[in-house]
User: What shape does this take?
Amino acid sequence: MIGQESRVAHATWLRQRERNQSEAKGTGTCGGEVAGDAVVAEVAAEVDTRITFVPQDLPPLETDHSIPSSIFQGDLWPSSACFVNIEATAISSPTFSVSTVSDLTPTELGEETEHSVKRVTNRHDTFYFDDGNVEIVCEDTVFRVHSTIISFSSPKLRDVLSPTTLRSAPMPEGCPRIVLADTADDFAAMLRVICTPGYSHLPIGVGPAS
Amino acid sequence: MTRFPPRRRVPEFTLFASLLRMATKYGFSDLREQLVEDLKGAYPTKWEDFETTSVLGEDVFGLPKPHPNTVLNLFVGQNVRFAIPFAYYRASIGGFSALMSDKPGMVLPRDTLARAIYGMGVTQRMMPTTAYAIGYTMNLIVCPDKACMLNVGISPKQQRTEVLRRLSDVMFGERQGGLLSAPSLGGITCGKCRESLKSSHSAHRRACWGVLPSAFAVAKSWDEL
Assistant: This one.
């Protein structure tokens, strides 16, 4: 349950958005206080609505083995009905749990995508090639790379960076920009392998030889 | 053609995890095979390999050494099946407090946590059995030339107590290595008796090893992995 302060803050944000929309339309808002109360009530109902986010782009864990039901029997364990049936998912990218609508930022709600594009300002120190033909955004970092090189060994990246996709992508910096759900560190590690000749000789660890 | 040339060393865990995630997600099969291959020495699937390997579990990664929960999360998430039972075991050695850690990166999902706790119970139930078996073996031992008493200088009762204490230290003590670790029996037995005890203990360790995949509900046996 979100506290009253969070509700009020969310209501303020909604009011501000409504005002902006009204100004854009040139109509203005009448009866602001009344409308504000209505918004608070709307938010109160909204924050009580629990939603669940399930990552859609992650492969399922390929195992059919389940825990023997006997372990759920006994006083120490709640009945199996108490356990939430969570689909096993790969931890290939950071997941987040959203308990209420109010926990979402406007970007996560799918609104104001222009804002998210403007927020990306960090060019990666190493993997931002001026002659690259595609920009890939991970978290708040933008990589500029050559699509043919990074998709050479990966059929999945080949699909992601297909000409059709690139043609329809936004081009804020003069070349197509694709947003991926990976972390910047993960993507940089992959680019390090792909783009660095002689990768096998990099002093990247101190573990024993395989 | 091999796109990614073989590497010489296992990378530190953060980089390893990044590469494994990306290789799995985007289908860099060569890279994933190499990364998984690096693990096979430290996460053996055969008892003989386990007995002979010098680097086990998360020790294979470079410094900083990752927490067993973090490694377990990675293996479960990226479906490195052959390594999952032993990763579960390594995580369960730390007990409830380690399994239920709430530090970033160490939090186990509910399903993984349930399997780990269940498997920990299974392996812990085997410990008293092993201890009793060792004690029974010691009672049966008749030192052929009384070498134990003559060379070591302690009575059979003291000897039995000391052996069980060391066994208990390995299983439950602060420097515990779990049921699969062999206690040092030097200085309290003669060579022949030591071999007898080790043989008895080894049989029980092997039995424990055999049940790991089913104890953690990963597979019915090691052969399935």
In short: Strands of chain A lie at 122-128, 134-138, 141-145, 177-180. Residues 113-197 of chain A form a domain with the Potassium Channel Kv1.1; Chain A fold (CATH 3.30.710).
